[in-house]
TrEMBL record:
Pathway: Cell wall biogenesis; peptidoglycan biosynthesis. The lineage of its organism: Bacteria, Bacillati, Bacillota, Bacilli, Bacillales. Its EC number is 3.4.16.4. This is serine-type D-Ala-D-Ala carboxypeptidase. Removes C-terminal D-alanyl residues from sugar-peptide cell wall precursors. Residues 288-388 form the Peptidase S11 D-Ala-D-Ala carboxypeptidase A C-terminal domain. It comes from Paenibacillus thailandensis. It catalyses: Preferential cleavage: (Ac)2-L-Lys-D-Ala-|-D-Ala. Also transpeptidation of peptidyl-alanyl moieties that are N-acyl substituents of D-alanine. GO terms for molecular function: carboxypeptidase activity. Keywords: Carboxypeptidase, Cell shape, Cell wall biogenesis/degradation, Hydrolase, Peptidoglycan synthesis, Protease, Signal. SUPFAM superfamilies: beta-lactamase/transpeptidase-like (SSF56601), Penicillin-binding protein associated domain (SSF69189). Belongs to the peptidase S11 family. Residues 1-17 form the signal peptide.
């Protein structure tokens, strides 16, 4: 596979003030040579930096992240397994030769796992279409599934027209691409076991293994051709290139328990997409720290208890079910306020209640020094169980309430 040696010569980075054939670059405070970009905290989804992040652009092979997500969903839902054998369709075997592929022939049989690795590591278009065809019958039917999934995720800018990203009619914004990446990492962390594979021999007879297009992987730090791009903690996710997209990259990095997601769109070269991403990561690690505003299992002032009906008790204590945390600039005193709460009305919550049952939500808002607001909503859950009361207790409670209301009514007359 001499093609892998050719790509190594294409990684030089230069400087074009106007941009690239993929479009104009946008001025920004970090000096990124990109048309759009975003930096997001993986655990909370908080956006820490953005450049033109809502502009829909061709993502090229970053499109495959949606295909990879759907395959993982199919496996999670027991409709596929890693060992499922896929028979290569005519459509997959006839994939145009102008992109990455592993040269599948019609009728070839390979496991889902092997094809998935070919897609994740080598960005193989034919392997991608083989998986799409196996799941949906045709690539076009699979594309319909991609767009349905995008809608379910709330990706408002996304419009998929292929499973691979070869068509420049597929578009998505940097923000939505980061949201897709976050969904993958949250629901299917096993994805990283595949995205971080540095090289993989698809067939025993293959002369050379596939080499991961993600030169930024930490595992490349000892490889001569890639070590200038390797970055500590990088273990995913997906590169891409077509002329109208420029060189693109959705990446993720984790250090000391903190994970970030990044997207850069329309950089000028194979190497530049990693050097521009490194600027985002350097900014993240040097600038921000995570502040826990409200720890998990905390009692929220003014929402300590919620009224309920037909229980052995008339209220249930509630606590937060997770941390409320924000990424703030190091050394800053963050302004974090409780800005909204949603709890059931007096007659809406009915016993029995289980410990840990969701009762409502509270929303906190962080305002940074520039006035930008970031919200985080956390569930309120029952701190303890409340059993349903027996008829005897309920009867006497009703009688007591009757006389209490009667007495208060008499007092109101005076």
């Amino acid at each position: 596979m001499a093609v892998w040696l050719v790509v190594l010569s294409l990684g030089s980075t230069g400087a074009h003030a106007a941009g690239t054939p993929g479009g104009e670059w946008v001025d920004n405070s970090l000096g990124l040579n990109v048309s759009s970009a975003i930096l997001m905290a993986a655990d909370t989804g908080q956006v820490l930096y953005e450049v033109n992040a809502d502009a829909p652009r061709p993502p090229a092979s970053m499109t495959k992240l949606m295909t990879e997500y759907i395959v993982l969903e199919e496996i999670s839902n027991k409709r596929l397994s890693w060992d499922t054998v896929v028979t290569v369709s005519e459509e997959a075997a006839s994939t145009p030769a102008d992109g990455s592929q592993i040269y599948l022939a019609q009728g070839d049989q390979h496991t889902v796992k092997d094809l998935y690795i070919a897609m994740a590591v080598g960005s193989a278009n034919d392997a991608t279409i083989a998986l799409a065809d196996h799941i949906s019958g045709t690539e076009q039917k699979f594309v319909e599934k991609m767009n349905e999934t995008a809608k379910e995720m709330g990706l408002t800018s996304a419009h998929f027209t292929s499973a691979t990203g070869l068509l420049d009619t597929t578009v998505i914004s940097a923000r939505d691409m980061a949201t897709l990446a976050r969904n993958i990492l949250t629901k299917h962390p096993e994805f990283l076991e595949y995205s971080k594979i540095q090289q993989y021999k698809f067939r025993e007879r293959d002369e050379d293994p596939m080499i991961n297009y993600n030169w930024m992987l930490e595992s490349n730090s000892s490889i001569q051709n890639f070590k200038q791009y390797a970055y500590q903690g990088v273990d995913g996710m997906k590169t891409g290139y077509i002329s109208k997209a420029g060189y693109t990259f959705t990446g993720t990095v984790m250090r000391d328990g903190v994970r970030y997601i990044s997207v850069v769109m329309n950089t000028e070269s194979m190497g530049a997409r990693f050097t521009e991403t490194a600027k985002l990561y350097n900014y993240a690690f040097s600038t921000f720290e995570e502040k826990v505003a409200v720890p998990a299992k905390s009692v929220v002032e003014s929402v300590e208890k919620v009224k309920l009906k037909k229980g052995v008790k008339t209220t249930v204590p509630v606590v937060t079910d997770a941390d409320v945390s924000f990424y703030v600039k190091k050394g800053a005193e963050p302004k974090i306020e409780l800005t909204a709460k949603q709890i059931p009305g007096e007659d809406e919550l009915v016993a029995p209640i289980e410990a840990g049952q969701k009762i409502g939500t509270v929303t906190y808002t962080y305002t940074d020094e520039e006035g930008k607001k970031t919200e985080q909503t956390v569930n309120l859950v029952a701190a303890e169980p409340v059993e349903k009361a027996g008829w005897f207790r309920l009867t006497f409670r009703s009688i007591g309430n009757f006389f209490s209301d009667l007495f208060n009514g008499i007092l109101d007359l005076f």
